[in-house]
Amino acid sequence: MASIEAWFMDDSDKDQRMLHKLNPNEPVSLEELEKLGVFYWKLDADIYETDPALEKIRKDRGYSYSDIITIHKDKLPNYEDKLKMFFEEHLHLDDEIRYILDGRAYFDVRDREDRWIRIAMTKGDLITLPAGIYHRFTLTETNYTQAMRLFVGEPVWKAYNRPAEEFDIRQKYVSALQCAKDKSNR
């Protein structure tokens, strides 16, 4: 059974690499993340080059392009600037797909009520964030991760910082959340 650790975040402005759990902690289940359009798989990162499970996901979801990024001060040019950029709240016009091959990191996503949910990512975690969801990324206190970035077709690197309500993809995402909520209330 796949599992992931996620929780509602506190409002502290301390170091973004800290856990930022509420006290008491308020965990968020994989089912709750899926209702936001966030999907997760646990894979064997040691065999990512030949992993049939990864190949099946790529084929089923049309992920035809991939590359690998190492986020560490000795490996990533303009490391500090890139970390600041990754942590700015933003959305993309396409899904964001990341597979952690080594190290640890956090993705933060907004829920329906605009609260932050922190998702802890470790080696072997693959996650998809839907187009239109507000999110951000940061490292943990280890200051290191290596991730595979996957795309449908050619990669698009453009992020749109919040507010970005005017984009069709944001409106479609919010509408889909509302429809799902309406169905669950019936």
From TrEMBL:
Q: Where in the cell is it found?
A: Cytoplasm; Nucleus; Cell membrane
Which Gene3D superfamilies does the UniProt entry name for this protein? Jelly Rolls (2.60.120.10)
Q: InterPro entries per the record?
A: ARD, ARD_euk, RmlC-like_jellyroll, RmlC_Cupin_sf
Membrane topology reported for the UniProt record? Peripheral membrane protein
Annotated keywords: Amino-acid biosynthesis, Cell membrane, Cytoplasm, Dioxygenase, Iron, Membrane, Metal-binding, Methionine biosynthesis, Nickel, Nucleus, Oxidoreductase
UniProt subunit comment: Monomer.
Tell me, what does this protein do in biology?
A: Catalyzes 2 different reactions between oxygen and the acireductone 1,2-dihydroxy-3-keto-5-methylthiopentene (DHK-MTPene) depending upon the metal bound in the active site. Fe-containing acireductone dioxygenase (Fe-ARD) produces formate and 2-keto-4-methylthiobutyrate (KMTB), the alpha-ketoacid precursor of methionine in the methionine recycle pathway. Ni-containing acireductone dioxygenase (Ni-ARD) produces methylthiopropionate, carbon monoxide and formate, and does not lie on the methionine recycle pathway.
Q: Say which family it is in.
A: Belongs to the acireductone dioxygenase (ARD) family.
- This protein is called Acireductone dioxygenase
Gene name of the encoded protein: ADI1
